Amino acid sequence: MKFFNRRSILALLAITISSATLSNAAYAQAKETLKFGLAMPLSGSQALYGADQVKASQWAVADINAKGGVNGKMLEMIVLDTQADPQLGINAVKRLTSVDNVPVFITAWSAVVKAVAPIANRDKVLELSVGANSPEIAKLGDYVYTTFPLAEVDVSGLAKYTFATLGKKTAAIMYINNDSGVEGAAIYKSEFEKAGGKVVAYEAYDTKATEFTGALLKVKAANPDMIHIQGLVSDIPQVIAQMRQLGLQQRVSTYSVGYNPKIIEQLGTAAEGLIVTSLAPGVSDNPNVGTFIQRWKDTEKRVPNGLPYTQYLYDGPYLVAELYKWLEQNKLPATGENMRKALITVKNFELPMTGGLQVGEDHRVNKPVYLLTVDKGQFVPLATIK
Q: Which PANTHER family would you find in this protein's record (predicted)?
């Protein structure tokens, strides 16, 4: 696996990306670039995900510009590190809006998306949340939109499937005590109980926790049919490993953050039977995905960490390019107000990796939910919920 060292991370933070494939002459000929921001974790505990998501966006910018950009104008992506930390996210977005003067920026991680929303609304700059899943994101203001379905889509679908199809009548829920964990766990509990199930244990753990024995002993005493974890890629393997050590052999589920080969690598046979969600089409659903995965294998010698998220982040620049194209067609200046107008006017977008995107008036989007399970050390399709 390729990791970002300190020098490469600092290099990423210091550059703006127009195209890795165009010549200097092509840059010189471009009268102006079409700027947008990308605020993601390139360092810190979530860098494993963030670095791959940034790489996917870099590829997209290069691919768009290699085909002529937007009417001959090149996309310019300004990348800043948030470390998935709200305060660092605020600092990054302040720079994007007040120094770099971008009309639109992409970010993720629910706590960051929420923290920077007041800046987007105050400065009238379009904020696109690509990957965060807190349901509250739909209520953050006129200039905040998600292109990624929120937890009420995949987590609720998973909860209903667990009761109705898997026949699990009781469930325990463990969740990380942050925005994503608290809100996602509440949705799972509500939907599982509405379906007819009973939640027999409901245990939170700290964001910096490494020891989960206390909560797991409560889960063990409750003896549920199913255990759902609403956590992060950094803690889910630890929770499952300690669960197995305590003799808890129940099947485990989690949401799309668990669709990561790193979890299987860390857990080995303890990952067998794990159910995860995906909100992006797979190889059999979209031929572009197979090409995308092969690109990772050819260039990085591995598959991406969090494939569905990298698919959405690859599509992010394509969405921005469509917004700029609409501004060009309507001879409108590149402002946040006009970017928002473009988004809600066009509404329907066809994107290369995730397919159709319809932006709702309620600031939400909907997608099919793909369920996968770990079988013999591989994620394999389990079901599709539409």
A: LEUCINE-SPECIFIC-BINDING PROTEIN (PTHR30483), PERIPLASMIC BINDING PROTEIN OF ABC TRANSPORTER FOR NATURAL AMINO ACIDS (PTHR30483:SF6)
152 pLDDT band, cuts 50/70/90, is very high
The CA distances from residue 106 to 222, 288, 313, 315, in Å, are 42, 22, 9, 11
For the stretch 256-301, pLDDT in tens is 999 998 899 999 999 999 999 999 999 999 999 999 999 999 999 9
Q: What is the DSSP letter of 57?
A: H
Q: Which fold has domain 6-149+287-353?
A: Rossmann fold (3.40.50)
Q: What is the dihedral of CA 111, 116, 118, 123, to 10 degrees?
A: -160
Q: How far is CA 350 from the centre of its chain?
A: 18
> Right CATH number for 152-278+369-385 from 3.40.50.300, 3.40.50.2000, 1.10.3720.10, 3.40.50.2300?
3.40.50.2300
| Region(s) of the chain under CATH 3.40.50.2300 | 6-149+287-353, 152-278+369-385
Q: What is the pLDDT of residue 4?
A: 41
- Say what the pLDDT of residue 235 is: 94
Give 118-162 as a DSSP string: HHHHHHT-EEEE-S---GGGGGS-TTEEESS--HHHHHHHHHHHH
Note whether 141 and 126 are within 8 A (CB). Answer: no
C-alpha 271/C-alpha 231 separation (Å) is: 15
